[in-house]
């Protein structure tokens, strides 16, 4: 059982996988994805934990940077989770609006710099499960962004959630349709895989103490 620190605030910021259909008019809404599953799991512990979801569907790293001071900083996260990158890839192919790995890294580093008040960081690697044969080439765009997240996690002493390999392995076992039918948006089963991976990273933070 994962036991959070007393009265800790966990803030999740990211794109649609974090957003998961939350009611943005309700500050307590967590959506129906991995954040909600995490909150349910942590809520079984005895310590007090507050979970805040500020994910917004469609966001890229630059979008997180643009709303950071309004949506993220005021919550004073004890543990801050950042999950972004797949839209930085996707916009190249659906809107001809690419984000280079260099631009992604520069923006991501600015997020880390702005998160200096957080007690701990969890960085979630973006993933993509190609559904069509031609989408396999899309990984050539995503892979350098995955490398950015991994490198920054190591430098920042953040816990890393290696989602691409985990989700790919789950899709190999159970089929892409069972995990994320469009390659990105998880089913309930896919959300469970993500939540379990996050909880393992959270446990690793506790073991550092």
Automatic annotation (TrEMBL):
Residues 12-192 form the SGNH hydrolase-type esterase domain. CDD domains: SGNH_hydrolase_like_2. This is SGNH/GDSL hydrolase family protein. InterPro entries: Ester_Hydrolysis_Enzymes (IPR051532), Lipase_GDSL_AS (IPR008265), SGNH_hydro (IPR013830), SGNH_hydro_sf (IPR036514). GO terms for molecular function: hydrolase activity. Its EC number is 3.1.-.-. Keywords: Hydrolase. Signal peptide: none annotated.
């Amino acid at each position: 059982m994962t036991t959070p620190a007393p009265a800790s605030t966990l803030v999740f910021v990211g794109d649609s996988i974090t957003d998961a259909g939350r009611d943005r008019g309700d500050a307590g809404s967590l959506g129906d994805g991995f954040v909600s599953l995490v909150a349910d799991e942590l809520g079984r512990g005895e310590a007090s934990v507050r979970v805040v979801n500020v994910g917004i569907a469609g966001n890229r790293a630059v979008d997180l940077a643009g709303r950071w001071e309004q949506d993220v900083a005021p919550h004073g996260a004890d543990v801050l989770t950042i999950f972004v990158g797949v839209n930085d890839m996707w916009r190249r192919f659906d809107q001809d609006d690419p984000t280079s790995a260099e631009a992604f890294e520069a923006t991501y580093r600015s997020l880390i710099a702005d998160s200096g008040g957080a007690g701990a960081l969890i960085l979630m690697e973006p993933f993509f499960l190609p559904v069509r044969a031609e989408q396999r080439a899309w990984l050539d765009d995503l892979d350098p962004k995955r490398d950015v997240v991994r490198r920054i996690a190591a430098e920042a002493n953040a816990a890393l959630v290696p989602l691409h390999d985990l989700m790919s392995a789950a899709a190999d076992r159970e089929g892409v349709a069972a995990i994320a039918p469009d390659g990105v948006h998880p089913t309930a089963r896919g959300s469970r895989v993500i939540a379990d991976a996050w909880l393992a990273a959270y446990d690793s933070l506790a073991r550092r103490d």
